[in-house]
Specification:
- This protein is an alpha+beta fold and about 450 residues long.
- The protein is built from 19 helices and 11 strands.
- Helix 5 packs across helix 8 and helix 5 crosses helix 18.
- It is globular, with a radius of gyration of 23 Å.
- The structure holds 2-oxoadipic acid (OOG) and nickel (II) ion.
């Protein structure tokens, strides 16, 4: 029996999710059109950037590219989710502790790992696990745990197809199609809550996020994020398209060489929900689902990431973005001024070891002595070229900003920083993959390939 490539299953799933979310949240469809329009204009206006993206194999993936996010309630759900995503070639990368930012979750991102898989389709899902241990009220904690233990977020078909994929090492085309349809059910929105209105209100009062996880039948996808080539332009145009963006773009400022990840979102919609405890049904509301866009840039080394973290922290000591946008201009100016200390040309970023690069031969002949020189010397001699490796992951401070802007101002609630990666990995049933190690390996592999090619050309 021939198995469908997991990359192909991921593409089927990503498209099915996008179609479902477009039906459920029409503003997402509008955002997709806006992003496409801005990307088209930018590509038409900048043939050099277009050629570079094509060379890197990124041009084709951009219109397909998106990430989503879900929030889970139990260890069992997280462990099964890991198995579900593995069927599509998505694996847990990175550990994000969001308790520092007043959000009682910790998270990972399921995503494809190697270059070929990322090029085929980079679909990722930011996946959070609720931490009831951070909720003070013991009685409420117990009630929430009981509700979560009783719910079943995966259909029987879905569980059977995951087991089949594991046993057979994959799925054939018909199995993959059935799997995608069954998996989609887990991420669907349910307008009927899983609890009565009184419990919903108590959960909501403890933390809005607790209500979002516990009160529903499953982990509805809460946003899908297309990738733009010019986030400032999309932010500027959003109001013209009838979408109100959050006050500031999260992440680094606008730069000549984009680094890491910049993100903006529109606020969650207020949606009708019916709450029932089996006796009384109450028509109410819930806000959870929103829209987001992102722009991706150079992946940073631990040294570059530490500089980024330092400069962002310094900025936020001076001005913290207010949710109402009242100090947005001051925040933008301070961010840009402080980030003047972050080198902004590709050569300095590379030679100072701040970012990861992919090496390839330029075609210029190398001399025998070149073969023993280091990468920087080979680039300086014009024998190798170095292209930025795109950041494929997330940023905890930005993620917290995205959570916050959707939870509302009153949700700004402090927990002490409380990372618990060991617990997360035990619940997941596997270690999370170190994200810097992935980029370092990709860089080293490209350099080894480039050197081998130079050696051959020379021999
Ligand atoms: C996830 C927020 C994090 C991002 O892009 O940083 C995220 C959530 O609200 O569940 O998606
Ligand atoms: Ni997101």
């Amino acid at each position: 029996m021939s198995h469908l490539d997991p990359n192909a299953i991921r593409t089927l799933f990503s498209r099915a999710m996008s179609a479902m979310y477009r039906d459920e949240v029409p503003a997402y469809g509008t955002l997709l059109e806006l992003v496409q329009a801005v990307n088209d204009v930018m590509l038409a206006a900048d043939p050099a950037a277009t050629a570079r993206l094509r060379d890197l194999g990124e041009l084709e993936r951009i219109s397909e590219e998106r990430h989503g996010a879900i929030r889970l309630g139990t260890a069992q759900e997280l462990a099964t989710m890991r198995r579900l995503f593995a069927v599509m070639g998505m694996h847990p990368v990175g550990y994000y502790d969001l308790s520092v930012a007043g959000v009682p979750v910790h998270s990972t991102a399921f995503r494809p790992l190697d270059d070929a898989a990322l090029r085929a389709n980079p679909f990722r899902v930011f996946t959070s696990l609720l931490r009831l241990d951070l909720i003070e009220d013991a009685q409420l904690r117990a009630e929430a745990a009981e509700v979560l233990q009783a719910r079943r977020i995966f259909t029987d078909d879905c569980l059977a197809l995951i087991a089949r994929a594991e046993a057979q090492g994959g799925l054939d085309a018909a199995g993959a199609e059935a799997f995608v349809a069954a998996a989609l059910e887990t991420f669907r929105w349910h307008p009927q809550a899983n609890v009565g209105h009184a419990l919903y209100q108590r959960l909501h009062a403890a933390h809005r996020l607790v209500a979002d996880v516990v009160a529903f039948k499953g982990p509805h996808i809460n946003h899908l994020t297309p990738r733009t080539l010019d986030i400032d332009e999309v932010q500027r145009l959003m109001p013209d398209w009838g979408i109100a963006p959050k006050a500031v773009i999260e992440g680094p400022p606008a730069r000549r060489v984009p680094i890491l990840l910049r993100q903006t979102s529109f606020k969650a919609l207020e949606e009708p929900v019916s709450y029932t405890d089996g006796v009384t049904t109450v028509a109410g509301h819930h806000t959870a689902r929103f829209g987001e866009i992102e722009q991706r840039g150079l992946a940073l080394t631990p040294k570059g990431q530490a500089l980024y973290d330092r400069l962002l922290a310094r900025t936020r000591e001076i001005v913290r973005p207010a949710a109402d946008g009242s100090n947005a201009a001051a925040y933008r100016e301070t961010l840009s001024a402080i980030f003047a200390d972050f080198p902004d040309d590709p050569d300095t970023l590379r030679t100072e070891g701040l970012g990861y690069f992919r090496y390839s031969p330029t075609g210029k002949a190398a001399s025998a002595s070149d073969l023993s020189r280091d990468a920087a010397a080979l680039v300086a001699a014009g024998v190798l070229r170095a292209d930025p490796i795109t950041y494929e992951d997330f940023l905890p401070v930005s993620a917290a900003g995205i959570f916050q802007s959707n939870l509302g101002d009153e949700a700004t609630q402090a927990f002490a920083a409380n990372p618990n990666r060991a617990r997360f990995e035990a619940d997941l049933g596997a270690p999370v993959i170190d994200l810097h190690q992935r980029y370092a390996e990709a860089e080293a592999a490209s350099l080894a390939r480039a050197r081998a090619a130079l050696g051959h050309a020379h021999a």
